[in-house]
């Protein structure tokens, strides 16, 4: 057993004892979106630092807390804050919450994140449901001699973003009058924001938004057989040149403004899982 496998088993045993129920869905809440947990009927919570073997989030806007309870009639575990490649973690560690979801018995992963819009039809403040991705992180969480859990080495990603869940989200958004558009996400390693030339290159390749996370989580979810829904809050506009200097606090502020619509979407999506 590898060190990462040992850490996962220790964390899973501790969390099972804490929560006392098998969760149906796991939520990963990204930059500025941790307040979505206010919609959960909370049974309990724990700091990441209190869980054996768990990485610790070091980024502003990521509380580093595990919450469990009910939302939309479903038993959920919510990871309030994620881990990033630029924090110095291996991608197999970045995806620790997803491996843990599988061990806990989750069938579905729902993840939210903030990203910069590359598409003029999706201005800041919009929400995108991800249908595909372009991985520019320079790595893959499955490039380990022994992945933490058994699974297929060559993972098919043609349905990584579960089409049925994408359609469900679009139906819920239409019923609630929330503007939601399908699109392609790309991820870079960060932590710097991109240059104008890099934004243009990402758009030329077909991306609608660019961030620094999510894609490793989706790859592991596909490996583990988890159905997946990704909702991206577009926090800034990366298609206006010359570029306006980006300030992280301003990006987080826009993400927080998007949170109520994201919460409303999830409130409608969860009962349909």
Structure description:
This protein has helices spanning 3-19, 91-94, 96-104, 163-176, 196-205, 215-224, 248-269, and strands at residues 25-29, 41-47, 65-71, 74-80, 108-117, 127-136, 180-188, 209-211, 227-237. It is of the alpha/beta class and 273 residues long. It has one domain (3-272): Nucleoside phosphorylase domain (Rossmann fold, 3-Layer(aba) Sandwich). The radius of gyration is 17 Å and the shape is globular. The two termini are 34 Å apart. 48% of the residues are buried.
Q: Given the C-alpha coordinates, what overall shape results?
A: globular
- Under the CATH scheme, the architecture is 3-Layer(aba) Sandwich
Counted by DSSP, the helix tally is 7
**How many angstroms separate the termini?**
34 Å
Helix content: 25-40%
CATH topology (fold) name: Rossmann fold
Q: Write the element-wise H/E pattern from the N-terminal end onward.
A: HEEEEHHEEHEHEHEH
User: Overall mean pLDDT score?
Assistant: 90
């Amino acid at each position: 057993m590898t060190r990462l496998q040992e850490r996962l088993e220790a964390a899973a045993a501790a969390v099972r004892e804490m929560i006392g129920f098998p969760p149906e869905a796991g939520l990963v809440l990204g930059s500025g979106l941790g307040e979505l947990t206010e919609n959960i009927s909370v049974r309990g919570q724990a700091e990441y630092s209190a869980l054996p073997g768990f990485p610790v989030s070091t980024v502003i806007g990521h509380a580093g807390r595990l919450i469990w309870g009910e939302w939309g009639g479903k038993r959920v575990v919510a990871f309030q804050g994620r881990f990033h490649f630029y924090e110095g973690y291996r991608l197999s560690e970045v995806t620790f919450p997803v491996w843990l979801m599988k061990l806990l018995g989750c069938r579905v992963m729902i993840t939210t994140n903030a990203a910069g819009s590359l598409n003029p039809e999706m201005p800041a403040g919009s929400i995108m449901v991800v249908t595909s991705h372009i991985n520019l992180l320079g790595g893959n969480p499955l490039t380990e001699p022994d992945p933490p859990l058994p699974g297929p080495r060559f993972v098919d990603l043609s349905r990584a973003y579960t089409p049925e869940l994408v359609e469900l989200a679009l139906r819920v958004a239409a019923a609630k009058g929330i503007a939601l558009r399908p699109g392609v996400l790309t991820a870079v390693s960060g932590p710097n924001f991109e240059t104008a030339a890099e934004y243009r290159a990402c758009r030329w390749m077909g991306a609608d938004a660019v961030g620094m996370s999510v894609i490793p989580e989706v790859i592991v979810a596909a490996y583990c057989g988890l159905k997946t829904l990704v909702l991206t809050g577009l926090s800034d506009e990366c298609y206006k040149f010359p570029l306006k200097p980006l300030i992280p606090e301003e990006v987080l502020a826009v993400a927080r403004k998007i949170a109520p619509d994201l919460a409303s979407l999830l409130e409608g999506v969860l009962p349909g899982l």
